[in-house]
Design a protein that fits this description.
alpha/beta, 206 residues, single chain, Rossmann fold, 17% strand, globular
Length: 206
């Protein structure tokens, strides 16, 4: 039966991991892609442990959001981020594809907030990290429905500039979607399939 696999009951297989800040729409995106009724939280930090979904050739793995979580101290939030990094590093040999979700409507604001503190923006930090451990990274810019056409153009250019700045040796692969309104989902499916096919991996059983 397709769906969430109890830990340890399935033979380990290659993974497509979904990572991103809290409340960017990771679970909603998996639901839109697969039809699996992934529990979608209404508050940042609702997903506390990774959830695995068997799609035949690969497992889709929904990782907890990093960054702000309702009702949690900064120390706890930092511990969660470190744990996510450690788990991904330990399972790097199983990574077929990494998908980094961002909220395009808030990306510039968050980047500028971090840079004013002379800190690396957390979205950029994870993009760089995933680029180092995964064969390929797709940046999924979610919530494009919140932007007007002119804003979409400027925010797209800004995102591409920041990703190139973070990893100048790679051309960023970006998909633009609204998981809520199912915009761009078919195109994202095709991009995932082609990325896996390039590695000799069959397409997921959507």
């Amino acid at each position: 039966m397709r769906g969430q696999s109890p830990s340890g009951t399935k033979k380990e297989k290659l993974m497509v991991v979904f990572a991103g800040r809290s409340n960017v729409g990771k679970s909603s995106t998996i639901r839109a892609l697969t039809g699996i009724r992934v529990l979608v939280g209404k508050r940042p930090g609702s997903t506390r442990w990774e959830k695995s979904f068997d799609l035949g050739s690969v497992n889709f793995v929904d990782f907890p959001g990093f960054g702000f979580m309702v009702g949690k101290t900064q120390d706890t939030i930092e511990e969660m981020k470190v744990r996510i990094i450690q788990v991904l590093e330990e399972k790097s040999n199983q990574l077929a594809l990494a998908i980094l979700l961002i909220d395009l409507s808030l990306f510039r604001e968050l980047v500028e907030r971090y840079e004013k503190r002379n800190e690396i923006p957390i979205d950029i930090e994870f993009y760089t990290f995933l680029s180092e451990i995964a064969p390929k990274v797709i940046v999924v810019a979610n919530k494009i429905d919140k932007l007007k056409k002119r804003e979409l153009v400027t925010e797209t250019d800004y995102l591409e500039f920041k990703l190139r700045e973070a990893s100048s040796s790679k051309n960023p692969t970006i998909a633009f979607i609204s998981a809520k309104k199912r915009i761009g989902i078919i195109q994202l499916k095709q991009l995932i399939e082609s990325s896996l096919a390039a590695k000799g991996i069959d397409k997921p059983q959507w």
